[in-house]
Amino acid sequence: MGLFDLFKKKEGPKALAKKAYENAVRLSGDSKAVRAVKVRVAMRATAVLDDIFDDGVRSVVGYDEAVMIAVAGGEEPPPFPKATAETCYKKVQTPEGKAVGYVPLKYAESMFALGLQYQSGKITGDDAFHTAQAVAQQMATDLRLSAYAVQPIEPLNWLRGDANRVNKNRR
Question: What is the model's pTM?
Fold first, then answer.
C-alpha cells in the first residue's frame, strides 16, 4: 500500500453496482468470466426490477393517503410519485450475502410506473407481467444476453401464474 493510497476514496456499494452493470454492458467475448459477469448482473437486475415495481405499488397507498390529508387540511396535494436516481439501487440477496444491485433510470422509471398502474387498477396482472417482460427484454438486449445464452431477466415471475390463468380462460 502506497502513501497516496490512504487518500484514495473507496467506492461505495452503489458506485460498485453501477460500475458492474456498465461493465457487463461493455464486455464482449465468449470467456467464462464474461459469461459469469453477465449472469450475475442479470440475476441482480431481476431482483432490482421486482423491488422497484413493489416501490411503485407501495407509493400509491402512501400517495392516496397524503392526498386525502392535504385535501382535508385545505392544502395543495403532493406531487404524484415517480422514480428517482436513488430508485435504481436496491439491496439484493446473493449467494455471498446482501449486495446492491443497479438498473439504469429508464428501466427503473418504467417498472415504478408499472407498479403505480397495477396498484391503481389501470392495468391487469397479465398486462403488468407482459410489460415487465418487455422492459426486461430491452435490458437483456443492452447486455447482449442472447449472445451468451445466459439466464434471462425475468421480473414479476409471481404474476406469471395470473398471466397464464387469464390466457387459458380466454381460449
Answer: 0.83
